Amino acid sequence: MAEQSEAHARGMKQENDRTDNEIDSRGTEDEQSLQAIKGILLTELMDVEKSPMFIIDLAQSAASRNQNLNPIHINTALKTAGNLLDVVSGRREPDPLGQSDKTTYPVFRDWASNPATHEYRLVFNHYSWTALTLRERFKLVSGTFQRQQATTSTLLSTSSDAELPSFMRGLKPPGSDLDSGMLSSTETRMMSGGHKFAATKSGDTSEDQPGLSAWKYDWTSSPPPPGLSPHVELVRSVDWASTSLGPMESWSPQLRFMCNFLMANPAPSVMFWGPDLNMIYNAAYPSVIANKHPTLLGMTPQEGFREAWEGFEPFFKRCQETGQGVFLEHLLTFLDRGFGPQEETYYSFGFMPIFGEDDTIAGWFQNCFETTKHRITERRMSTLLSISETTAAASDLESFWKLLLRAIEKNEHDMPWVVIYAGVDQNEVSTGSDAHTVGSSTTKRFEVLCTIGVDMGHAAAPTRTDIAKGSKGFHPFFGQAAEAQDPLVLFLEDGTLPMDLVVGLDTRGWCDPCKCAAIFPIRPTTTNPNSTETVLGYLVMGMNTRRPYDEEYRTFHRLFNRQIVTSIASVLLLEEETRRGRTIAEQAALDQRKFEEQLSLRTRELERSREQLQNFADCVPVGIFVLASKPGNMDGTYQYRNERWFELTGDSRDNNIGSESPIWDRMNPEDVPVVRQAWKAVRTTKTSISFEFRVAQRSQYVGVQEHQLDPQGDIDCTWILCYAFSVWDDDGTPRSVIGSITDITPQKYAEIIQKRRMEDAIEAQRRQETFIDVTSHEMRNPLSAIMISADDIMTSLHSLKTNDPTMSPESKKLVDSSIDAAGTVSHCAQHQKTIVDDILTISKLDSGLFSITPVEVQPLAIIKDLLKMFEGELQTAKITQKTHIDDSFHDLALDWVLLDPSRLLQILINLVTNSIKFTQLQERRIVTIHMAASRGKPAESVSGIEYLPLRKEREDLTNRPEWGKGESLYLCFAVEDTGCGLAADEKKLLFLRFSQAPRTHVNYGGSGLGLFICRELAEMQGGSIGVASEAGQGSTFAFYIKARRCEHVPTETQTSKQALSDPHSPHVNNLRRSAPYRNNVQEPLSARQERAAPGGSLPSDSSAPPESTNAPHVYDILITEDNVINQQVLSKQLLKLGHRVSIANQGQEALDFLRNTRYWKGNESDGKNLDVVLMDIEMPVMNGLECVSRIRKLERDGSLVRPVQVIAITANARLEQIDKALDAGMDDVISKPFRMPELIACIERLLETSQSNSDSGE
After folding, report:
1. Which residues are bridge partners to 418 per DSSP?
2. Which of 454, 798, 1145, 1246 has its CA 20 to 30 A from that of 547?
């Protein structure tokens, strides 16, 4: 072969020389062509190539090692090859079927960026890649698509010329530089050095095989092919001449063939050749022999596997004797692979003899598969399974420890010795052992319970006596082990395992001295894994001396620990359940004995109770019965009836069927249907029921005073109340009916008497109200005439005095005296009206008819309206009025609130009236009104006045739906004056019914009800009232009420009849915005004295003329009044004011009058003029309510072309009476008595509103 190689080399040299001569002979002929070729760029050639190609800069790759490839140029084919560019650049995972499972992207990356001069062919992502190094800096990588699936191993071989890009095929052989003419001048500067091809041809192309090339793969040839792997180069570097095989050039073809076959085998393989069985192995075999590589190359097995040869030699001999191969599975082999000279390993071997030409065995071929991981894992999993199965029979901790020891005893190699420390109570040991507790807060300590391979008393397993003498064993490590996440492993090598704890141990398995130990804290799975408090014990065991403590060993330890804690948790649960079951059983036995004793006791008590109940049932004044049901007799038969049953019902003592009992005959016929229906219900349903009936038997409770109880003498029966319920069996059938009967005749008679008394009381109240109404009506009618007449007299006398300057002094004195007398009459009439109003108010309070109606108002407008009412009186009395608004009112930004303005003004007018009354005679006359607000209930006013305590609990009216959900607020008011003040004993009488200040302060006293009513009104509105006063210093009355902030600002039309005030309450005309004509129902503008009636009358200056009554407008007025005096007085005053007046004596006459007015259809142009109708309510023939109802009906029918304005003038002053008048169709109501200015103001307001509504089109 050497001669052939030399001949081949001489031939190649001759061929090259011939080629060079030919090129030189052309000379200058091809100079121009060469210059053109030098202008062609490498990148241009790459772009026309159909195979994907790219160039990387090896300098950049070295700087960014372990990073993805970053090509500096890619050709068009790579750009258009789908996602191949992303795979090559590492941005996408390769197809798992496109290469060997060992050829990952890092392998491809390292291969492509390897600056070595050897190029290899690598299959990656369905492409066979070749690489060329250009000028030792740039790597040109080209790929050829492979249609076959990748082999199971990494395809590393020399590249063939057919796999190179087309423009590179046939270039110079390895060792020659790439012609610099192929690169541009710039690329020439970038690159330096030469390029070597990856493969050569083995000889020239033969003539009988034109176009084919036989590539050389024999690495044993000389010279060898380029691109050899490092392992092959290592094999070639062995001094084979010093072995029995001789130099490689002398190897036989068979040996060469087997060597190439060995290197191509992807599995770990070794070949033993020659008489000495010299070893040759492939690149995968070092993973088996570890650190024996590469020294085993060329060595004999007797020398290389000295420690295992005794086990291998019999197989060689057996194969030699039989000439047959043999396959050995899981052969235990002790190798020195770096962990130790006796590492436990398992291999499966396939020995095959290699026969030579002389029919002898020339060598042996061995495929080797390591099964160490499989065998050891199988052994360890068997141990875990044994633990699970064995400890399942444990019933408590003590048996668990022993069964655990039995389960792990079989695995003597991974657990050569074991010591179990179990926890015991601190109370069970001596005080001298406190040093061996785990944790400072625990009361548990640990003692050796059982061992394997360790004698009790050894340093690793100290007894209680040894501990008392100072021996600690493994106790110092328990705290650290309990806090560790994994089992604590101690090694002799690093000094963590004390030598004295393992010296002298009788270890099992390999019987090697112990090198390391592991400590497992045993705790239930449900506890904190890092707590020392829950540890039940510790398992300390030696470790396999012939296996490294690697990740597999750590995994086994974790699984071992998990299996133990899981099993012990089951034992603890079982032990707890057993303990609980035992406790339950003991308790059940105890309960059974107690139950039997109690049953005997209860039986005796039941007998006594039955006798007691029997005696009790016979003695109680209630009839008791039990009606038992039986199959075929669902009506039941009396099972028990006490004596009282027979006394009340007169029933027969025979044991009759319930439906045939004589009681049905004695029952009142009117009650029988009701009782039968109730009886049916109690027998068919499971509900209890009660009913009443009468029996024809005289009640024993009716005695000699029966006619006093029942004057009608209707006492001929006994009223009975029956209460019964049914008892049902489990199958849903009625078993019995149990019931009781009671004589309720006295209650029935009492109900009759109570009903009659209630009717009498209602009738008495009705009569009282009628009497008050009649009295009020009859008093108000003449009072109205008196007040109007008095005003007329004063007006006339003042006019006479003013218009007659020639009047003598005596006449003037007489006129003044008459004016004073008329003022006194007016004052007395007003005082009388106040008393009537107080009586009406108290009557409503006592009857519970006083209501609080919320209306959306502005508190400041109420004060403004109040001041406007008193403007004239304050000026007449020369009293200075002041108003103070507290900052709290503005801080809360109060505007619109919900409250009852009429009740609020009723209090304010009463207090202001009193202040004027008691201040007008003082030298210093000032009345101040204070106003404040707060979110919480005030304990005292702004001036420091304490409010009176509530006399009783009252409902919070602001929680009702009509008050809305706005914010709750408290409005505080105070009226301060500089009047005469009150003494201490006088203040005690304030706010009491029928109490007042001494009469010496004023000409006429009030009713004594004013302040009492104020207190009632304040408390009804969720507030209270108080006073501060000193004699001669003035008084301050303060009160507060509860209100709510308006959720929405009221619209222009949000007023209705509910805003109507009580006839004795202040007018609220200015508190609301204008409303449509028919809906704007407002309280009549009656005199302020009428509205403020609770506080007493207002004094008037008898010398002052009445308010001016000169009307700015002249109206046509129809007076409908049956009282002639009232007709005359009222018509006279209206005529005096310039108005035109017509008279109707009752309602029918008023209707007849309307037929002739412009209101009537057809009379619009020539009918009589009419502006307003003043109508009394109580009149003969047709009263006012019926008349106004007829008027509204005529308006709806169209007989009246437009609405008629009707004002009710009535002495009926109750709110319900005014409501009734408004409901009937009245536009406004003014109650008697009244004064002319008030009437004229009411008429003007009504007509102005009507006119504005008419102008707006309503």
Report:
1. 452, 541
2. 454
